[in-house]
Every structure is written in structure tokens, then in C-alpha cells.
Design a protein that fits this description.
By secondary structure, the protein is mainly alpha-helical. The protein has 2 domains: 122 residues, Rossmann fold (3-Layer(aba) Sandwich), CATH 3.40.50; 55 residues, Orthogonal Bundle (Arc Repressor Mutant, subunit A), CATH 1.10.10. The chain contains 10 helices and 3 strands; from the N terminus they run H-H-E-H-E-H-E-H-H-H-H-H-H. The chain has a 3-stranded parallel beta sheet with strand order 1-2-3, sandwiched between helices. Strand 1, helix 3 and strand 2 form a beta-alpha-beta unit. The model has no long low-confidence stretch (mean pLDDT 93).
């Protein structure tokens, strides 16, 4: 890959590493525009490496290059700070275009990965809970009881019980534990 990049006019491979751990310090100390990052690496995976470097180098674009196509890898990469996600079978010419695209502010993705991202937005649905109900459920998930929630939110215990009753109804559950579990599973809290 470094040979392809170095052999193309306008491109230069400045650094190359075998694992994420050995990349941390040099990438902090050197100026680079784009980092091509594999996910599956020894010692530290690429997602963790991006997660650590992005806050320190916000101007750098991280472009994931992986064989992994699973939702978890894709979304963890994006959440960690990746600007794009390509599969390793991407032809070299397309890879070079993707590097230019990410440098220009784009977010290049292999077609199948882009489809996954779009489909995830189709799956998103608005929370059935009001802001206050979400806040109460979040406090319950932190182990607070009804009275503590009421005190923390400056509400009467009766008002909190009413909100909790509404939460149970909207989530179709019958207990605090079920409500918290469903809230976490459905990413409501």
C-alpha cells in the first residue's frame, strides 16, 4: 500500500506501522493529512488508536481500511472519529480518490458500508418518552429510588410515580428493571 501511495504523483506515505500501539507517539509528533487505519492489528486495534488520537489531532482525517463489514466495527470506527470507511478490496485507484475526497472534507465509504450507515438511520425512531421521562429513566438506571429522583428533580414523589407509570406504559414493561433494560436496549438512555 505504501508503494502504491508513494508511486502516485501528489501522494506521499510518511509513516507506516504494524500495530496501533507503535503508531500513537509518532502520529502525535508528526504532521500528516490522512491516516489509513486497519482495525485488526496486534497490541491495539485501529478503533482504539483512532479513539486516542482524534482528540489530540482533530485536524487529521482517519480513513478506516478493513475487511470487517459488521455494524459494530463500522459504527465504532465512526464514533471513534473516523472520517471514512473502506473495505480492503477497494481498488488502488479508488483508494487514492478516497484519500483526496477525505482531504477535501468528504466522508468516503465503500458502497456496502454506505448502505449500512443509511439503513441505520432508517431504523432510528423517535423516542416514545418525553424529555422528563427520559431524565427519570436515566436516574433510575443509575440506581436512584423514586424519592431520590423526586428530590433530585425538585418534583413531588407523586409526580415521579406518574411519570414512571407513563414510562412503563410507553415501553410496555411492568417493572423498573425491565424499563431500564428496555431503555438501554432501545438506546433511549
Amino acid at each position: 500500500l505504501a508503494l502504491i501511495i508513494d508511486g502516485t504523483a501528489g501522494f506521499w506515505c510518511k509513516l507506516s506501522f504494524e500495530n496501533g500501539k507503535e503508531a500513537l507517539k509518532p502520529l502525535q509528533e508528526n504532521y500528516v493529512d490522512v491516516v489509513l487505519m486497519d482495525i485488526e492489528m496486534p497490541e491495539m486495534n485501529g478503533i482504539e488508536c483512532v479513539r486516542r488520537l482524534k482528540p489530540l489531532k482533530p485536524e487529521v482525517d482517519f480513513l478506516m481500511l478493513s475487511i470487517r463489514q459488521d455494524d459494530e466495527a463500522v459504527f465504532q470506527s465512526i464514533c471513534a472519529g473516523a472520517s471514512g470507511y473502506l473495505l480492503k478490496d477497494t481498488p488502488p485507484a479508488e483508494l487514492l480518490v478516497a484519500i483526496q475526497e477525505v482531504k477535501a472534507g468528504g466522508a468516503p465509504m465503500s458502497a456496502g458500508i454506505a448502505r449500512k450507515v443509511i439503513q441505520s438511520f432508517h431504523k432510528l425512531k423517535a423516542s416514545p418518552l418525553s424529555e422528563r421521562e427520559t431524565e427519570i429513566l436515566r436516574l433510575l438506571s443509575q440506581g436512584m429510588n423514586y424519592k431520590s429522583v423526586a428530590k433530585a428533580l425538585f418534583l413531588s414523589p407523586h409526580t415521579v410515580k406518574t411519570h414512571i407509570k407513563n414510562i412503563y406504559g410507553k415501553l410496555h414493561v411492568n417493572s423498573r428493571a425491565e424499563a431500564v433494560r428496555k431503555g438501554i436496549e432501545d438506546k433511549l438512555i
